[in-house]
Amino acid sequence: MTLGTPQAYGDASYWDNRYRQDNGPFDWYQQYSGLAPLFHLYIPKRHRILMVGCGNAVLSEDMVNDGYQEIVNVDISSVVIEAMQRKYQDYPQLKYEKMDVRDMSAFENNSFDSVVDKGMLDSLMCGSNAQQNVGKMLEEVRRVLKPRGVYILITYGGPHVRMPHLKAPESWTTTLHVVAKPGSRRALETPSWVVTDPIPMNDDGSLGPDFHCEDPDLHYVYVCIMDPSQHTTKTYK
Ligand SMILES: C[S@@+](CC[C@H](N)C(=O)[O-])C[C@H]1O[C@@H](n2cnc3c(N)ncnc32)[C@H](O)[C@@H]1O
Fold this sequence. Notes:
Blueprint: H1 12-21, H2 32-42, E1 48-52, H3 59-65, E2 70-75, H4 78-87, E3 94-98, E4 112-118, H5 120-126, H6 130-144, E5 145-155, H7 159-166, E6 172-180, H8 185-188, E7 218-226
Parallel strand pairs: 1-2, 1-4, 2-3, 4-5
Antiparallel strand pairs: 5-7, 6-7
């Protein structure tokens, strides 16, 4: 499934209605098996992890079953959060809280080692006031991350549409990986790349000859690592 058409993807009411009609579970884009090599590379098992826009994905459960110890999941939809709280009441490693990622003031500065985003930023990109909302969200992500913390964005958006949001301000360094879409032509081929090897990216967001900026058979994984000298001291009243 692709989040491609501008709709009300940024609205809580859109997601509440959707989760009332279909209580899943459903993982957008990729399942854990496709992402695990990258998570193993960048997210140590002891990390305190924030999963933004968790929906009713199985990703967090799969991570816990693989040894991750603490994952705080947030979503703007109270319908999905209540369902996930019931589903995972016997998993002490998983917490679910209703929250808008544009205002995560319930969390202290520098309180997470990693933030995982699969389809969350994409939802804001597809809604109204995208630029402003994505800016607010990324400011909050940077605020809650510790120095050297990691933000992992899994998205259908290629570098020329995502890097303008990720590269300013320069408080982190961004590395790109690509993963074939499950069931796509790319997934059936022997890949000409190794998923854990970063893809060289030019300043204008263009890629090497094997990759087209908007290849419909690829998902893009941006790994942003906080520069320890730039971490935020912003406080909320
Ligand atoms: C495309 S779905 C991705 C769900 C899940 N991460 C996955 O990979 O299957 C986007 C999710 O973001 C949530 N969402 C949208 N806007 C939000 C916001 N401002 N704050 C928190 N969650 C939001 C939606 O409720 C929805 O569950």
